[in-house]
Amino acid sequence: MGELLRRLRKGAGLTGKELAQRARVAQPTISRMETGRLLPTPETVERVSAALQLDKAGRGELDALLIRLRDEVSRLKGGLAGREAANAARLRSAQRVVSFQPAMILTLLQTAEYARLALAFGRDVDEEDAAKAAAVRVEAQAVLFESGREFSFGCTTLATRPRRSSSSRV
Q: Is 25:47 a contact under the CB 8 Å cutoff?
């Protein structure tokens, strides 16, 4: 959102202070929106859109992004399962995914049980939330089979090597 807003502001030849004055909002509001530290209200977006004199397409792009961000924030408030849903939404919107995880099986390649354990490891989490989050993570793996996507995975041998007990011989 911030990147789009900055691009639109610069395209209009305005400084942050000038945009704030035209939109009748505080200058720090514009700055925080552009740096991603503030998710604006629909009213603020309306004021900024009017100040930028956006055409229908520009306003539509801004509105669509605001809706997507509000949805993601809502998911993030939903515990582990919400966070996994937000990650899955980002994954679905990507054409190319590059992932490196040095000490774990890559999230797109995890089994449901491994995902549940990985999500709960070292945390005091609700088991039901961890199970739901694991289900969302495994469901997101469907993108692996969609055409037009590119995946690059990297992992260390530690992630794939079976764990040995202290009594095992090498």
A: yes
* Cα three-residue angle 17-22-27, rounded to 5 degrees: 30
Alpha carbons 69 and 21: distance in angstroms, whole number: 25
- As a whole number of angstroms, the distance between CA 115 and CA 167 comes to 27
Based on its alpha-carbon atoms, the radius of gyration of the chain, rounded to whole angstroms, reads: 21
120 three-state secondary structure: helix
pLDDT at 134: 92
Domains of the chain by residue range? 2-75, 80-160
- Which superfamily does 2-75 belong to? lambda repressor-like DNA-binding domains (1.10.260.40)
Q: Which residue has the tokens 């969302």?
A: 136
pTM summary value? 0.46
